[in-house]
Design goal:
368 residues; six-stranded parallel sheet; alpha/beta; binds nicotinamide-adenine-dinucleotide; seven-stranded mixed sheet; binds zinc ion; Quinone Oxidoreductase, Chain A, domain 1; Rossmann fold
């Protein structure tokens, strides 16, 4: 079939919206009509050419939500008409990692996905007979996408898809960092560095877990105000003395849980150092630049602090994204306030500009 998609033709250049060919879903795959798609940092990171594993041409986009239109042979869990959220972090339910409760990093299709192909090693996207590689296994800056069934979370049709799409990446990443990776205990003190989509999600996650103190640190007053609306009990402007201020406000010990959601390695270090002596857990969600390293003074570890990383919030997408969407519908998560701009597919590059200007939290492409 023919469909319109935003193609990254060259790094550092605006995406070019054009008509592409999309082949039918093969066994284990589904054709999804996109209804909405958020614009995330990882799309911008790849578009800019900074991501060392990036390639062109490709169709970006990974925060998609839509409706299944057709399925290939052997597809069992989704059917035409189902509402779905796309999963760049799939869940096959069969591999060693999927069978473990200790991780959400599915091993089934990692290699092919990283190279831009669907699990059988080929692409469904093409132009004039030339294959075009997929991005993050999703390529949702397009009217339609073909994805493996294991990369689709079936959600209730009651959820508006222009809100549900945020659960495809940023929001789930933040919430899950608190609920799944750190498993924040009720009554604890939490510090979140960064109040973008991921950090605000972590604020929400800490609140859902019943944390007593939720301290959010950012450089922007507007974002800190949003953090307060989502459950932060205290806010703080970041800076070199952030660790000292946090330690001071926690009786000289530091916080039970800290979260890093800036991607800045200096802030990651602050997150480690403001975790409590004895049992403080620092969860790193930010993605650092190429070649950057995190400096940790070993004494901080010897004295009982732990550091862990979190990909997609430790969330097993097919099982848990539908549950998060239910919690949103039940009124536990205010998703509306995160959607700051609605764009058409043709305006997708504007989404990058808004992100660079820190104008709003999320721009969402509306395909309707
Ligand atoms: N682990 C994952 O699976 C995953 C998924 C999505 C995004 N990410 C990463 O998470 C990070 C955050 O993403 P986002 O979309 O929320 O980004 P964002 O740019 O919207 O938010 C980052 C925030 O950090 C703040 N900040 C910058 N310097 C600071 C400082 N010194 N102290 C305190 N705050 C500071 C900024 O003001 C901004 O509000 C990025 O690195 C992104 O790549 C990770
Ligand atoms: Zn993302
Ligand atoms: Zn798996």
């Amino acid at each position: 079939m023919k469909m319109r998609a935003a193609v990254l033709e060259e790094f550092g250049k605006p995406l070019v919206v054009q008509q592409l060919d999309l082949a039918e879903p093969r066994p284990g795959e589904a054709l999804v009509r996109l209804v909405a798609c958020g614009v995330c940092h990882t799309d911008l990171y790849t578009a800019s050419g900074t991501d060392p594993s990036g390639y062109v041409p490709t169709v970006l986009g990974h925060e998609g939500a839509g409706v299944v239109e057709a399925v290939g042979d052997g597809v069992r869990d989704v059917a035409p008409g189902d509402h779905v959220v796309t999963l760049f972090s799939p869940q096959c339910r069969e591999c060693l990692h999927c069978e473990s409760t200790r991780t959400n990093i599915c091993l089934a299709i990692r290699e092919q996905q990283g190279q831009g192909y669907l699990p059988d090693g080929t692409a469904r996207l093409s132009r004039d007979g030339e294959p075009i590689r997929h991005f993050m296994g999703t390529s949702t800056f397009a009217e339609y996408a073909v994805l493996p069934e294991i990369a689709l979370a079936k959600i209730t049709p009651e959820a508006p898809l222009d809100r549900a799409c945020l659960f495809a990446c940023g929001l789930t990443t933040g919430i899950g960092a608190a609920t799944n990776t750190a498993k924040v205990e009720a009554g604890s003190t939490c510090v979140i560095f960064g109040a973008g989509m991921v950090g605000l999600g972590a604020v929400v996650g800490c609140r859902l877990q019943g944390a007593e103190r939720i301290i959010c640190v950012d450089l922007s007053d507007d974002r800190l105000e949003l953090a307060t609306n989502h459950g932060a009990t205290e806010t703080m402007i970041g800076g070199d003395d952030a660790v000292a201020r946090i330690v001071e406000s926690t009786d000289g010990f530091g916080a039970d849980y800290t979260f890093e959601a800036t991607g800045n390695v200096g802030v990651m270090r602050q997150a480690v150092e403001s975790a409590r002596m004895g049992w403080g857990l620092c969860t790193v969600a930010g993605v650092a630049g190429k070649g950057e390293t995190l400096d940790v003074i070993p004494r901080f570890l010897i004295t009982g602090r732990r550091v862990c990383g979190s990909s997609f919030g430790g969330i097993k997408g097919r099982d848990e994204v539908p549950q998060l969407v239910e919690r949103y519908l039940a009124g536990e998560i205010d998703v509306d306030s995160f959607v700051s701009h609605k764009l058409t597919l043709d305006d997708v590059s504007r989404g990058f500009e808004l992100m660079e200007a820190q104008d709003g939290i999320r721009s969402v492409i509306d395909f309707a």
